[in-house]
Amino acid sequence: MGPPVSGHVFVVGADLTRLACDDVLVPTDRSLRVARGWCSVLPDELITDRQADGDCVALSWTGDERVLEVPGDGPRRAWLVDTVDGGTDGTGGRGLAWLLDGAREALAAVARREVREPVHGRARRLVGLPALGTGWGGAAGERGALLQQLLPVLREAAEEHGVDVALVLRRPSDLAAAQRVRRGEEGGWDLPGHLRELAVDLGERARRGQLAVFIGAGVSAAAGLPTWEQLVDELATRSGLDDALRAGLARLPAQDAAALLARELGADELATFVESRFGPGPYALAHALIADLPVQEFVTTNYDPLVELAAGDIGREVTVLPTTRPGREHRGCSSCTGTPRTRRAWC
Questions:
Q1: Gap between the Cα atoms of 133 and 142, Å rounded
Q2: What is the model's pTM?
Q3: What is the pLDDT of residues 309-342, one digit of tens each?
Q4: pLDDT given for residue 334 in this prediction
Q5: Where are the chain's structural domains?
Q6: What DSSP state is assigned to residue 91?
Q7: Which segments in the chain show pLDDT lower than 50?
Q8: Among residues 216, 110, 102, 220, which one has the least CA distance to residue 164?
Q9: Of 256, 306, 314, which Cα lies nearest the Cα of 282?
Q10: Max CA pair span of the chain
Q11: What distance in Å separates the CA atoms of residue 89 and residue 43, rounded to the nearest whole number?
Q12: Which of 35, 205, 291, 317 could be 210's S-S partner, Cβ–Cβ 3.0 to 4.6 Å?
């Protein structure tokens, strides 16, 4: 049985340019100018006429369309959305309704693009967008009103098109405002009664500082990193083992297979591979949601630094234990012992 048709709207603090997703909406205007920070999600060859107030994209509108698909062959597709209200006479004044129509048009265009497999094994496609129009756009002075009206539009689109939507906000005030809107909405997660009770209990424990989070490889698999079994297979390929030996490795526990491959490859080559494979890169939606949880510590068996990156993008300082010395205010916690990169805590 496939996933339900209806998608979900996530509200998250993150850097949208570093979030692993299938599609990302990029604000622009009729001159196809984008803020410098968006250039990392666009092909370099399309960026022209670099200016202090923004860079132009070498594409063109057709008629009065407001959504333009950026060509590319990578796993993430960018879409330019006209959010700067020049008005029919160039003076502006079309208001929030015009911006909301642009969001509807953009999400409908995204849904028409066929995607056979969502990025990194997700059940549904993930579409990321900022609070459209709050930069150069028509809602620069109406952020609260925009968020109040944008979230229902996103929820309707997620239900209609069967995609997940992530409203990604960098400013803490915007994130807090959007979460207030969410709390006032009806619906949300369609959970059975016992799971809803469990979710409420976990939320209360987090607020009281009584919750620690354990993170395994499944979280980082959503960012394209390998699970234990996949890592062993990659190491076996790198070592040049023949099919018979690889079949034998597959019958061993993953840790034992990895130990044998470490001896085959040598410590230096293994360390180089792991460092390059698990280095900084795009993080998953789960990393961003975890980084914003009101918890003081967590434990992970993962090698990658993606939770730390997600936390840094929302201005949250992370102390990695035991490889980083805690500040004087740190009073000690269950994460204070362990091998490098296996115990972490917030401070």
A1: 9
A2: 0.82
A3: 999 999 888 777 766 555 544 433 333 333 334 3
A4: 36
A5: 9-188, 207-219+281-346, 226-277
A6: S
A7: 1-4, 88-91, 328-347
A8: 110
A9: 306
A10: 72
A11: 32
A12: 205
